[in-house]
Amino acid sequence: MDWVPIVFITFKVLVFGTCMFYAIKWHHDQGKKAKEEASRLQTPTDRAPDVAE
Length: 53
Prior knowledge:
Layout: H1 3-42
């Protein structure tokens, strides 16, 4: 019965480590996506010469 805590703790560390990796990756990707969206919206778009403001 001494092996049970070792197995459960190892499993817990692997699961939490994997979940933390994907959570950090997801947040990083969301920040990159928001930054690209903001920079895309701030760049002036080309207008047709006959369009009046």
